[in-house]
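URGENT: need a sanity check before tomorrow's submission.

F., can you look over the DMT family transporter record below? I want to be sure the sequence and structure line up before it goes out.
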Amino acid sequence: MPSPSASRIAYLLLTATALFWGGNAVAGKFAVGHIPPMTLNAVRWTAAFMIILAIGCRTFRRDWPLVRAHAPTLLGLGAIGFSLFNMALYSAAQYTSAVNITIEQAGIPLFVFITNFLLFRTRVAGLQILGFILSIAGVAVVVSGGDLERLAALRINRGDAITLIAVAAYGAYTVALRYKPALDWRSTMIAMTFAAMIASWPFALWEQLSGAGYIPDAAGLAAAAYTAIFPSILSQVFYMRGVDMIGPNRAGLFINLVPVFGTVLAILVLGERLHLFHGVALALVIGGIGLAERGASRASKSGR
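Structure tokens as predicted:
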């Protein structure tokens, strides 16, 4: 069980992570028409790789034997959690709003809970179950546009469906982080951003050669610069550290703060409208994370 001071540090890191990720969805929507989605993803991870390589090349050389021994794990984590997740996210931004994308990411903890239980029989407290049910109810409200008949008929738009692929990708990544080797964060990030870069460029080249691509403009490159620094480097480091400190189930819940920050940023930056059903969804998400975190804390204290 982490100490109270360690938990507070983890909460701060994970809250900052959610803020930067909320900005990632907004940047993806802002980039529409300025830089193609696959190109944005490839440029983002190339820039992130070059930045982190410049910072940690000496550490990476020192850690190379351990990196090489765990190369399949690190490459898989980078390709799925970094590249696939964001390819889906930026593609979804072509068809749905940034508010929808950010709120729908609250489905990630549900995927984490279910996968941890099925694979590792990780116990979940009653309040955690109630918390993620409330969060998923919030996602359902957004996906349905507040129309229960639409939800019952499973009529969701293309962007919302693609966002669910992103949710599954990042949920799988969160669960698989338990297999990450004990490396210096710089070495870990170099290996994983390299994997993301390599996984991204074939899709970017296909996008350009197929006629769907175009040359990015200054606004598109600015969006890529933001995503390279904040969501790509700072958020990933903060998130991995938070998972290490309080575990994947509790850390994953903080992803539910992404819709809060993302919604505010979408309104301020993009001028998107906040509808009543968005407010209901946010209330459910915020209430869900509060209940689930309280349940996790009680379970930890009782030794369950």
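My own read: The chain has a mean pLDDT of 82. Residues 4-302 form one domain. If you see anything odd, call me.
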